[in-house]
Amino acid sequence: MHIWKRKTVSNFYAKKLLTRIFEKGACVYESPDLKHIKEYCRVQLDTLWEEVLRFENPHRYYVDLSQSLWNLKDRLLKAYLAE
Predict the structure, then answer these.
(1) Domain that holds residue 65
(2) Which region, left, alpha or beta, applies to residue 18 given φ > 0 means left and ψ of -120 to 50 means alpha?
(3) In a domain, 42, yes or no
């Protein structure tokens, strides 16, 4: 919406979120057992700030689109509206 907004971040850790599940119709992903899933969730919760986790007056966790994703969204909306 507001393409003029910019933010520079530093001192962060980035992790790929996409995992290949299927390839050419065949399942190529082996799901971890419940114990490992539970442990992964616990570790990830420990990485969140206390301000985000509180129930009363939680800090708003701001997320925005990357430039390439914003461009894709914009192109798709323009194509849809042109029809």
Answers:
(1) 22-82
(2) beta
(3) yes
Question: Over the stretch 55-64, which tens digit does the pLDDT of each residue have?
Answer: 888 887 777 7
Alpha carbons 67 and 75: distance in angstroms, whole number: 12
Contacts of 43 (CB under 8 A, 6+ apart): none
Question: What whole-number percentage of the chain has pLDDT above 70?
Answer: 96
Question: In this structure, is residue 14 part of a structural domain?
Answer: no
| Number of domains into which the chain is organized | 1
13 in the Ramachandran plot: left (φ > 0), alpha (ψ -120 to 50) or beta? Answer: beta
Residue 3 lies in a domain: no
pTM assigned to the model: 0.52
Virtual torsion, Cα 58, 61, 62, 65, nearest 10 deg = -150
